[in-house]
């Protein structure tokens, strides 16, 4: 059964706003990544989703393509964001088969719950490698394509038509027990995106992070709050009184990729119902 639109997109946006545009996304078969991709494809984009698992990635691509007649969605599996060469080959293939890369989302992430005492140096490094180095590799592999696209699509009012988004987190604003590795990795992602916005803004690329809060149904949340009771307590702690939905992140993604978001660059859009302000028991 196909996923209803209301699960991944609000009624805010006009169909076709992303016609002839192409999204390249790592982690595109994941819970948040697939909603982001669905939303952009629904609104006219074609997409290439990248993942480690071949079957999961190809199946997700086929499912997502069903949201719009004529949509082209390619799934490229067996790509680990820690391996630059495989990412570069995937980006080049995406641009060749779909015509361009106009939007990039660095969404692949690695996470597990562990106190610092339980983290081996390699465990810490693995998360830095997936989240931070993986985001760098994604940027490096796709930026030539984003520059080409920006040069072709710049207008006086939309001077940065190419968009690069990284999926970050809010843990590093306060520090987070059991997530020291992820918190450190995402702080570096924020910093990297800030530098990208400065170096590549003049070439027509707006670069931002999206920092999701507690999003229902994600692997990360299931691991962080294992029991239903814990989940209920966390939900009550969010100032706006509910957990986030993947749709909240997809709508934020649409905004940042749309013409409406063309002057937003070098920042982090926090989509968490103000949850981070109470994070850590404040
Ligand atoms: C302590 C652990 C551990 C754990 C693994 N390690 N799990 N240490 N506690 N629970 C250690 C291992 O012992 C090893 O160290 C090192 O980490 C690498 O483990 P591998 O299994 O060899 O790594 P790899 O196969 O590369 O897998 C990477 C992974 C895995 C991160 C460990 O979970 C993964 O592939 N995850 C991708 C999917 C995922 O995590 N999605 C959730 C993203 S959610 P030693 O010293 O023994 O070699 C997210 C959102 C965050 O990021 C925000 C949440 C709200």
TrEMBL record:
GO terms for biological process: fatty acid catabolic process. The keyword NADP applies. SUPFAM superfamilies: NAD(P)-binding Rossmann-fold domains. GO terms for molecular function: 2,4-dienoyl-CoA reductase (NADPH) activity. InterPro entries: DECR2-like (IPR045017), NAD(P)-bd_dom_sf (IPR036291), SDR_fam (IPR002347). Its EC number is 1.3.1.124. It is an enzyme of class 1 (oxidoreductase). This is 2,4-dienoyl-CoA reductase [(3E)-enoyl-CoA-producing].
């Amino acid at each position: 059964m196909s996923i209803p639109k209301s699960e991944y997109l609000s009624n805010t946006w006009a169909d076709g706003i992303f016609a002839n545009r192409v999204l390249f996304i790592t982690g595109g078969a994941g819970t948040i990544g697939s909603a982001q991709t669905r939303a952009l494809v629904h609104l006219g984009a074609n997409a290439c989703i990248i993942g480690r698992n071949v079957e999961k990635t190809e199946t997700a691509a086929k499912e997502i393509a069903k949201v719009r007649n004529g949509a082209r969605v390619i799934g490229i599996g067996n790509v680990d964001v820690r391996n630059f060469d495989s990412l570069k080959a995937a980006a080049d293939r995406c641009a060749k088969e779909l015509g361009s890369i106009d939007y990039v989302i660095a969404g692949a992430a690695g996470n597990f719950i562990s106190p610092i005492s339980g983290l081996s140096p390699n465990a810490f490094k693995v998360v830095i490698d997936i989240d931070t180095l993986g985001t760098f590799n994604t940027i490096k592999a796709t930026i030539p394509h984003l520059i080409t696209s920006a040069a072709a699509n710049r207008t006086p009012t939309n001077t940065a038509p190419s968009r690069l988004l990284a999926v970050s987190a809010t843990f590093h604003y306060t520090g987070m027990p059991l997530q020291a590795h992820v918190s450190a990795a995402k702080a570096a992602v924020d910093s990297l995106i800030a530098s990208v916005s400065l170096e590549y803004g003049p070439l027509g690329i707006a670069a931002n992070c999206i920092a999701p809060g507690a999003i229902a149904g994600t692997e990360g949340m299931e691991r962080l709050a294992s029991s239903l009771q814990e989940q209920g307590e966390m939900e009550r702690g969010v100032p706006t009184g509910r957990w986030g939905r993947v749709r909240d992140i997809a709508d934020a993604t649409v905004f940042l990729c749309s013409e409406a978001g063309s002057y937003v660059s070098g920042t982090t859009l926090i989509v968490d119902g103000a949850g981070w302000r109470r994070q850590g028991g404040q």
